[in-house]
Amino acid sequence: MEQLLVIKIGGNVIDNAAALQSFIEKFSTIKARKILVHGGGKIATKIGDQLGIQSKYINGRRVTDAATIDLVTMVYGGLVNKKIIATLQSLQCNAIGLTGADANLIPATKRPVVYPTAKSETTAGSDLQGIDYGFVGDVDSASLGLQSLEILLSNNFTLVFAPLTHDGNGQILNTNADTIASTLAVGLSKKYAVRLIYCFEKKGVLENVEDPNSVISLITKQKYHQLIAENKLFDGILPKIDNAFDAIDNGVDEVLIGDANDLLQNVTIHTIGTLIK
User: Fold this and answer.
1) What pLDDT, in 10s, does the model give residues 112-165?
2) What is residue 84's predicted lDDT score, i.e. its pLDDT?
3) Backbone angles phi, psi at 167, to 5 degrees
């Protein structure tokens, strides 16, 4: 099977113009078929502050109310995505910027209100208080526009996805970029030999978060459970590992988590990040 690289870039790299430029330059030189999924970094928060749109979080997750979905659509789908596309075009990489709404590529459903399950989570005598994350989308993986994706890839377009999906009824939804990358990797694994790569500012998954050299070169499920039991994984990395195992369980060949600066090394067999198998 032909190789396909699904690469997600996020973290502080998106917020640092020089780091993002360096990453895009490396990404543009990759000869294999490739898809880039980008996060939004802190840019939406910064612009929201300028526009008087206050960021709201519940348990560390952004609440996407009506004003915020307009904000992230403009910032993720417009500003961030099109700057990346323009830079890639300047490097002779024929890229096309996309959201899940384009060509019905990534349908999703609005996340339902989440209600607590334990009585201890509510105030005595009060009704259960639901948590509404607003216009946040959970991907409908069974309805991916795989035929359209394959047409674009077979015509040598480099696909660059903003972390936005849609509900089929005209509503844009904010969706986790790691999840979008994993979903695309799984969907396309029936056609391609897929390597999913999560790039951020660290060398990989660290056994000791205080030691940047304590990279774990290989994580199996057994090793993962061991690390969890020993409380050695910081919160921000857990969703990436969960998405990685979900991808591998559903057809993706391998997943790598590593430094954006090491991208060209990590698309080879001689990886220096954390390989998950």
Assistant:
1) 998 876 544 444 443 457 889 999 999 999 999 999 999 999 999 999 999 999
2) 98
3) -100, 5
Q: What is the DSSP string of 144-189?
A: --HHHHHHHHHTTPEEEE-SEEE-SSS-EEE--HHHHHHHHHHHHT
CATH number, domain 3-197: 3.40.1160.10
pLDDT tens digit sequence for 250-259: 999 999 999 9
Rounded to the nearest angstrom, the gap between the alpha carbon of residue 251 and the centroid of all alpha carbons in its chain is 18
In 50-129 the beta strands, taken as DSSP E runs, fall at 57-58, 61-62, 95-98, 108-110
Helices (H), 40-145: 43-51, 66-72, 81-90
Structure tokens that stand for 152 in this block: 């674009």
The tokens 């050299």 sit on which residue?
Answer: 213
160-218: pLDDT as tens digits? 999 999 999 999 999 999 999 999 999 999 999 999 999 988 899 998 888 988 999 99
Give φ, ψ of 44 to 5 degrees. -65, -40
Distance from C-alpha of 180 to C-alpha of 184, rounded to nearest angstrom: 6
Residues 6+ apart with CB under 8 A from 20: 9, 13, 14, 84
Distance CA 42, CA 59 (A): 17
Exposure of 59 in the CB half-sphere (CA atoms within 13 A): 5
Please state the pTM of the whole predicted model. Answer: 0.91
Q: Is the dihedral of CA 47, 7, 158, 137 positive or negative?
A: negative
